[in-house]
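Hi all, posting the design record for the shared folder.

TITLE: backbone redesign
STEP: 1 of 1
STRUCTURE INPUT:
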């Protein structure tokens, strides 16, 4: 008996320890058994695990009834939370309680439907759906509800009878959750769509702006064209602003009209809006009243030293736009009063160079704002590419079939240029190793790191070639060592005397024969005795 007692104490201690470690071992093996919490093992055909209780299913029990808390639900009962009720009393629950006649559940609270009603918010606030119980003679709106027939706005009711009151806030700007009441006779409801550039989600901002008119961005003001105002760049832009313009001189002029030019306004009958494709900026320019045709914008195709772009208006019929400078040149000169002295250059010139007209089909070319004879540009100087050569912005005469080496021209049949150093061509299969020309039939160029090259340049003698010290015997490089690939093998910068066509291959910085059962490549090592090789 004493031995059995000690064994029982040992088992209890073992179970306590295992339970603390959230692992339990039971000695009673049940065929097809399941664990019931930390209580024990049970047969699901004869027992139920309810909470932490294992209960035998009696003949009068219904196995499909399930659990209610720690007990089996009896036949004919209703389980509300963890409490059982006779279903003769009802079948609907609210938490742990059974609903009676004329009762319903609102967010876990029981209310009498004869005196109250439940309001559930259609819009989640902070991702939590809200419920409110109000009197039955009121409609849902906010926490206290509102009178029947009212309009819900921001959780408060608006009396419809105030629509006839000019001083009352009788309208809603927004919705029942975040709306705001306002006086439509004095103020304006604005609705602006705002794009979140990070999430690409569009949200609508509703707000009340002072005054009657059209909303302008997120300003708390409105504009009215009848009051000589315009909203630029447009009413839906977040950073839009209201611009006032002078209409005193145009009250009786029917062709008066203002429009936006970027974030500015302009009179379309007297001005032009020019939008640059180079920097996306907008420019307002005054029209030339002496020109009857539609004027166009002339942009310089580059920014000046102050990051500004030249722009002007021109008449495409009588003038030419010089895109290289943004200047306008007249093609038809109407400056002379004598009509016979007028001349038309439109048939002679089709291009201009820094304001100077020329014919692009002729032997002229514009080089960085300078006009010259030739077919190519060498910086700002024109030259003929068939007889001349441009070497580092220097023109070399009589240079047909020659090539450039820095600022010098050379014959590729007799010389070679290595890193801007001109030297005799000694080998037909020669290559460059930085500034040194070598025979690629017998040698190769094995360069070290860029840092090492810079160190070597500082220590180089003035009349020597820096690349000469990196030329090695062989046809390939193993790190900075030359070798012959037909007789040697390079493994991560380490050279071995082994024919690459043999069975030997690299294992990290070592070499081994994979057909040898005594050798195996493990973790960049050929030690077959290492445990990870097993």
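Okay, here is what came back for every position:
SEQUENCE:
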């Amino acid at each position: 008996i004493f031995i059995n007692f000690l064994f029982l104490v040992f088992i209890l201690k073992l179970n306590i320890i295992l339970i603390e470690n959230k692992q339990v071992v039971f000695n009673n093996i049940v065929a097809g058994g399941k664990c019931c919490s930390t209580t024990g093992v049970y047969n699901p055909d004869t027992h139920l695990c309810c909470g932490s209780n294992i209960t035998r299913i009696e003949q009068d029990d219904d196995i499909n009834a399930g659990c209610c808390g720690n007990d089996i639900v009896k036949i004919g009962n209703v389980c509300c939370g963890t409490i059982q009720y006779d279903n003769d009393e009802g079948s609907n629950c609210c938490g742990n309680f059974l609903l009676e006649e004329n009762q319903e559940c609102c967010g876990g609270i029981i209310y009498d439907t004869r005196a109250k009603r439940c309001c559930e918010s259609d819009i989640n606030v902070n991702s939590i759906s809200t419920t409110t119980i109000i009197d039955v003679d009121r409609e849902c709106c906010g926490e206290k509800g509102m009178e029947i027939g009212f309009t819900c706005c921001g959780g408060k009711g608006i009396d419809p009878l105030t629509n006839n009151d000019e001083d009352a806030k009788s309208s809603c700007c927004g919705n029942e959750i975040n709306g705001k009441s306002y006086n439509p006779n004095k103020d304006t409801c604005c609705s602006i769509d705002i794009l979140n550039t990070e999430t690409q989600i569009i949200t609508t901002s509703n707000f009340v702006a002072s005054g009657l008119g059209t909303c302008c961005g997120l300003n708390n003001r409105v504009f009215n064209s009848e009051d000589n105002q315009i909203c630029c760049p447009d009413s839906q832009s977040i950073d839009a602003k209201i611009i006032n313009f002078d209409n005193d001189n145009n009250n009786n002029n029917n062709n008066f009209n203002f429009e936006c030019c970027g974030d500015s306004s302009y009179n379309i009958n007297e001005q032009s809006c020019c939008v640059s494709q180079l920097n996306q900026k907008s420019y307002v320019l005054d029209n030339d009243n002496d020109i009857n045709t539609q004027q166009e914008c002339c942009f310089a195709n580059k920014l000046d030293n102050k990051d500004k772009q030249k722009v002007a208006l021109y008449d495409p019929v009588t003038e030419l736009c010089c895109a290289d400078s943004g200047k306008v040149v007249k093609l038809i000169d109407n400056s002379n009063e004598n009509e016979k002295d007028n001349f038309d250059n439109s048939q002679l010139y089709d291009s201009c160079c820094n304001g100077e007209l020329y014919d692009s089909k002729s032997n002229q070319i514009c080089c960085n704002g300078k006009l010259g004879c030739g077919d190519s540009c060498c910086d700002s100087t024109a030259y003929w590419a068939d007889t001349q050569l441009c070497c580092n912005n220097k023109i070399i005469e009589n240079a047909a079939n020659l090539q450039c080496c820095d600022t010098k021209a050379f014959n590729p049949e007799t010389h070679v240029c290595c890193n801007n150093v001109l030297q005799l061509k000694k080998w037909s299969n020669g290559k460059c190793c930085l500034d040194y020309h070598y025979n690629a039939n017998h040698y190769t160029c094995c360069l070290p790191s860029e840092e090492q090259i810079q160190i070597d340049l500082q220590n180089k003698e003035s009349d020597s070639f820096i690349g000469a010290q990196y030329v090695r015997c062989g046809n390939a490089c193993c790190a900075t060592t030359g070798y012959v690939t037909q007789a040697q093998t390079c493994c991560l910068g380490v050279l071995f005397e082994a024919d690459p066509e043999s069975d030997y291959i690299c294992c990290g910085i070592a070499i081994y024969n994979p057909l040898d059962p005594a050798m195996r490549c493990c973790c960049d090592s050929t030690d077959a005795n290492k445990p990870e090789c097993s």
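COMMENT: Residues 5-27, 249-255 have pLDDT under 50 and may be disordered.
Let me know if anyone wants the other runs.
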